[in-house]
Amino acid sequence: MVSTMIMQRMSVAMEYGVILKWLKKEGDTVKQGEPIVEIFGEKNEFELEAPADGVLLKILCDVDDEIPISEPIAYIGKKDEKVPDVMPRKLNESAAIAPTTLSAAPVVAPLGTKTSAKAGAAVAETRLPSGKIKASPRAKKRAEEMGIDLAILVGSGPNGRIVEKDVLAAQSLPQATISDERKIKQVTSMTPLRRTIARRMTQSSQNPHITMITEIDMTEVVQLRAEINERVEKKHGVRVSFNDIIVKAVADVLERFPKFNATLSGNDLFIFDEINIGVAMATEEGLIVPTVRSANKKSITEIALETKDFGARAKKNELKPEELTGSTFTVSNLGPFYVDLFIPVINPPESAILALGQIKKKPVVIEDTIAIRSTMMASCAVDHRVLDGAPAGQFLAALKETLENPFMMKI
What we know:
The protein has about 400 residues and is an alpha+beta fold. About 25% of the residues lie in helices and about 25% in strands.
């Protein structure tokens, strides 16, 4: 009996997976539980395993294909066993491309243009929305032999696919330039992580945001951090960051503002029991958000140990799917990059996000006298469907009070 491998959901937010690498080829013998294919999910990589013993009869997806959850990706069964005539739906081949009519042009063209050998005629886009080039196997082989970059060709085949004659015709043509004569230096496709970020940020931008901004005196936090690190560094070998203290403060304040720890679905607001803080981290590939679960129940030291571990493993791409999902509120800190203030974009499906700038000394008026204090700008963006300006202001005021009097927090 033929077994169907499907695209599996590895996290709650995962809607599709990107094929990164097939570890087996058609005709190979596989065992149940053996890794078959590498997948990029919501924001990390994982392996899908064979659901049964047998032969990998047919692979249904190419590398870089975007496959929705539960769609078939391969069939496993006995040698020569007939496989179902069912193919997966591929997101990166489903978008309709509106043709654009241009004047007569040679076959060679820059990325993203559509051209034809006859004036007034239009052909389909050569690249899929994911950036993957549509080309026949013979065209790919010929282009490799001739040293021609497929990115500068426009296909004359079905649906804009590049075929062998397009490659041969391009051999004698000059380097492509776009309409204003700027030369193309490089063409790069978006990575699976950047595609995920693009999709989620587009989703977020469709919801109305409002942003509240305040300035927080961090002088007492600076002192608290110095005192904590005298003990923590000796005992645990890590240094507590300002962000670790802020994450703890945010988690404590969220206990008093449950609607900030919620998600909207239809007309229903789901308020979470756990306070799970997503900590935005920059990597070479893009932004990821590991989750500190039940942060309100943890000490500053425990949060520091957890976030340092996240950071170390994020650089090696070793974070697990469950560590990158489940956040109920996000903290994004660009202070280490010398940013003073920025307006954040909510991480869907959350209802709010806190953005932090750098801590720096400045003169401040305190009871008619000028003093040098360490200050930080903070901005809180909220989903205006769920929250209004007044509660957003109250949340920031409570956070400001907590950070300006931080010695009661559990260290």
